[in-house]
Amino acid sequence: MPFITGQAPESAEERYSRQFKEALAQGWVVLSEGPSGAQMELPKKMKTQTKVALVIGLILILLWGFGFLVIIAALIDYAMQKKETKFIARA
Questions:
Q1: Is 43 within 8 Å of 83 (Cβ atoms)?
Q2: The pTM is what?
Q3: I want to staple 53 with a disulfide (CB 3.0 to 4.6 A). Which of 35, 45, 74, 87 is the partner?
Q4: Bridge-partner residues for 34, per DSSP?
Q5: What is the dihedral of CA 13, 17, 19, 23, to 10 degrees?
């Protein structure tokens, strides 16, 4: 964080606390927390293209009955997504 005139510099513990609270507010989940910092993970979210593929698959099933391939491809795409992780250091 840049130094703002008129305010005391932020201590390492204050910076850690601020970053930790911001991450929690953004939806990050704490995996572990120790003396050196916290390991956090962002839950997977379905991408827009995966949602569109699921809708197209459902439409194809209703109209012609072969949308299962599209739905399977969309679910494979979702399953292949990796969860994002980050580490917030205390010092």
A1: yes
A2: 0.63
A3: 74
A4: 37
A5: 150
Long-range contacts of 9-13 (CB under 8 A, 24+ apart): 12/90, 12/91, 13/90
Query: What residue spans define the domains of the chain?
Result: 12-89
d(CA 59, CA 36) in angstroms, rounded, equals: 51
Encoded tokens for 57: 């698959």
- Please work out, in degrees rounded to the nearest 5, the angle formed at the alpha carbon of residue 39 by the alpha carbons of 79 and 46: 25
pLDDT at residue number 60: 86
User: DSSP code of 82?
Assistant: P
Q: What is the pLDDT of residue 63?
A: 83
Q: What angle do CA 22, 28, 36 make, to 5 degrees?
A: 75
Of 42, 27, 44, whose CA–CA distance to 81 is shortest?
A: 44
For residue 30, list its beta bridge partners.
40
Q: Please list the helix, strand and coil fractions of the chain in percent, rounded to the nearest 5, in that order.
A: 45, 20, 35
